[in-house]
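Protocol step 4 of 5: obtain the predicted structure for the target chain.
Materials: sequence only (see below). No template structures provided, no constraints applied. The aim of this step is simply to have a reference model before the mutagenesis design in step 5. Sequence pasted as it appears in the construct record:
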Amino acid sequence: MAVEVRYLVIRDGKEVGMYTTKKEADAHDKMLDIADNLFLYIKQMPHMELKEDLIEELSIHLSQNREEVIRILRGAPLDKARENAPPVKAATPQPAAEKAAPKPAKTGKAARSPRS
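Step 4 output (structure tokens):
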């Protein structure tokens, strides 16, 4: 019998991701926290009427690309190659369940752990 450890990211009572490492799950949770804060910040802007789904998409994109955004906010120029490139949609981290189909379990003695 194979045992797998999976880490769930749960927001507002809903499962939003499943990961094979705690580091991946924590990174996704942190990205969502930042996106939530950006969402609230953008939504409160005066004289700015944007649809909530657009604000959500923008805040998630900024959160996923926060290191580049921070670099830009510090005054670093936009990379010339990226400036002329067509916009690329940021990849959302995929939960472990969606990354790849699980490998079939080994059979016979090779499947057993040396500590069993």
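Step 4 remarks: The mean pLDDT is 78. The CA atoms of residues 20 and 46 lie 42 Å apart.
Proceed to step 5.
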